[in-house]
Write a structure and sequence with these properties.
Elements (H helix, E strand, L loop, with lengths): L8 H20 L3 H8 L4 H28 L2 H20 L4 H29 L5 H28 L4 H20 L25 H27 L7 H23 L3 H20 L1 H7 L1 H32 L6 H29 L2 H30 L3
């Protein structure tokens, strides 16, 4: 039987748009803590609050954007959100106070929450259902490539003494190019469906709540890692090359996505997610022990630190397309936007909690203590997935 065609011009354009959007995003992610410290002289707790506003705004808007995507034309909403997301980077250049910065972060979060739900939903619309896991895997691979390049470039530019304004302009340029690619994506005409009365399940996929809770637990330590791992590296004595952590993590994600999507399309969603959870659980316990290793065995500790980055990438890269497909397979086609928004909302809640929790624990204790707490949360996630989420999915899946 011949496989349905996956690679089309529209699919290539939306992957490029996704890469350029996330490159602009990841370029600044590891630099923002230094920006807040050097420009506004914020402490760790205040920094966590300021940075988490972005994620909290994104998760607030996601359910509404999912509803809008299921009700109206999807591409115009995608383009509008992409334009706002791009424009806000320019706003950071003129943000003279912490209050203005936080307001911009909130608006930026609204745009990010909408554009990511829209993009994921459009990918599902323009690719064959028989290759959905593979399509989502390659689409997410663009995020991973951006994650490997963006933080490294951002930290290099910062360490080279370039101003924060230059970094903001670089993000504007990247996302502007992505917006051009987004405009070139051709989408199918959405069939008319009867509009249902507004209810809770138009904003959240109720059947996806158990999986959402599990994903939330996993995203808390992930949020701690993407934001604070560069600072953690310096605290434990790795004073240079911390950008390599993001590169190795992204390489792990890229490699895992090359096979995980195909396994998902073969119906092995539960097994793929279980493998990923066990691996990240091991990695976060290892990450929390790096402080001790660097103190006792510096050479070993450095190898372990960067080795964990690679394995973390494999673990999360394995889970991402599987979790996304799990949510979509629990929903009818008319609620693809709602399913995608529930998936991403769950992720964002955990990311926001990770920013807050990591900043708080880092201030009252140490960041390695924060990663130990994160490791414990992955243990809870593994137990909950095997006891509740997996069986619930097998009983309620629609495809």
């Amino acid at each position: 039987m011949t496989k349905e065609r996956l690679i089309t011009p529209g699919y290539c354009f939306i992957i490029a748009a996704n890469f350029l959007l996330y490159f602009g995003f990841y370029l600044l992610m590891p630099v923002f803590p230094f920006y807040l410290t050097e420009v506004f002289h914020t402490g760790s707790a205040t920094m966590g609050i300021a940075l988490s506003c972005y994620t909290l705004a994104a998760l607030t808007i996601r359910p509404f954007s999912g509803y809008l995507l299921d009700t109206f034309a999807r591409k115009p909403l995608y383009i509008f959100a992409y334009f706002i997301f791009t424009s806000i980077f320019a706003g950071y250049i003129v943000a003279g106070t912490l209050a203005v910065f936080i307001i911009l972060r909130v608006v930026h979060g609204f745009a990010f929450g909408t554009v990511t739900v829209s993009g994921n939903t459009l990918v599902i619309d323009i690719t064959p259902s028989s290759r959905r896991g593979e399509a989502l895997g390659y689409y997410g691979l663009a995020n991973n490539i951006a994650m490997s390049i963006g933080p490294m470039v951002g930290l290099f530019m910062h360490d080279a003494g370039l101003s924060f304004d230059v970094l903001f302009v670089a993000s504007v340029v990247s996302c502007s190019l992505g917006l051009v690619c987004a405009l070139l994506v051709r989408t199918p005409v959405k069939p008319q469906v009867k509009r249902e009365p507004i209810s809770l399940d138009r904003f959240f996929l109720v059947k996806g709540i158990p999986a959402g809770l599990d994903l939330l637990l996993l995203s808390i330590p992930y949020g701690m890692t993407t934001t604070y791992v560069a600072m953690y590296a310096r605290q434990i004595g790795i004073v240079s090359g911390s950008g390599l952590f993001f590169t190795l993590m992204a390489v792990g994600m890229a490699v895992s996505r090359l096979f995980s999507g195909r396994q998902v399309d073969k119906g092995r969603i539960v097994a793929v997610i279980s493998f990923g959870i066990y691996l990240v659980c091991f990695c976060f316990f290892g990450l929390s022990s790096c402080k001790w290793l660097m103190a006792e065995f510096p050479a070993v500790g450095r190898y372990v630190f960067f080795g964990i980055a690679l394995l973390l990438g494999v673990g999360f890269g394995t889970m991402f397309p599987a979790f996304n497909t799990l949510f979509v397979n629990l929903a009818p086609n008319s609620k693809r936007g709602t399913a995608t928004s529930t998936y991403l909302t769950s992720w964002d809640v955990g990311i926001g909690a990770g920013l807050l929790l990591g900043g708080y624990i880092g201030q009252v204790s140490t960041l390695n203590a924060a990663y130990f707490v994160g490791a414990c949360l992955t243990v809870v996630s593994a137990l909950f997935f095997n006891i509740k989420v997996g069986p619930h999915f097998e009983r309620n899946k629609l495809r």
